[in-house]
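User: My collaborator sent over this chain with a note saying "see what the structure looks like." That's all I know about it. Can you take a look?
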Amino acid sequence: MKNYTLVILFLLGTIISNAQKSESPYEWDWVRDGIWTGAGLAGSAGGLLLIQNKEDLSDEDFFKIKNDLQNEIDDINFLDRWVAGKHDESANSISDIPFAISFAAPFILLLDDETNDHTGQVLGMYLQSLGTTATMFTITAGLVNRSRPYVYDDSGNTSDERRQKNNGQRSFYSGHVAATATATFFTAKVYSDFNPDSPAIPYVWAGAAVLPAAVGYFRMEAGQHFLTDVILGYGLGAATGYFIPELHKKENSNIDVYSSSGRAFNGDTYHGMALRYSF
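Assistant: Without extra context I'll predict from the sequence alone. Here is the result:
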């Protein structure tokens, strides 16, 4: 009798546990996603090597900026021209605060009852999202030379040595903004998918949109990036944070595509694909 009681209690515990565990809207394939995540991490490492090996601004180009500064600024497109010459160390430090906060945002999801049953899956997608963003950013920053706004600062606050260093040649595009947008849009997307009826969704998305915009503003004030660098970083980061979870969503089980063959009413035979929707 005692053994039967233990078996019944075990079965009841299993049933309760399964009942309490929420169903994830996502699916994870270890082969596909393992390759994708590994490629993202490897790509970002390769991009960092490209960044480290960038050349300094040539003496000839730096001479032109120093001695013909206004014409050099006038050659910058009108969207970015107003940022040229900005340099604010305080803004640079402030930009790091929302940037750092954003990386922790997805971990707040683990406090949500609907999400924390699938911690490994969520963290796997987050790592994949960050790896994808890091690869795109580092390779672009390593290959494209664009002077940062502070390179055009002739106020004396920025030394000539700093203006000519290779770090000043990777304005395009903003990695801070891209990474922040990836983290915040990922958080909002995953929360919305796990809690589609939550009244908090509009506020979550508002926060997701504001945080990378704040980072972008301070990065421009710091003279680290132009407006177009920020816009592109925002767009690419937000797209990655949104679409990587979207690509992991389970297929709609109500839709079925299958092969079909038979004979039509006029006697002709046919072969093809059929779509079935169940409701």
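A starting point for your reply to your collaborator: The radius of gyration is 26 Å.
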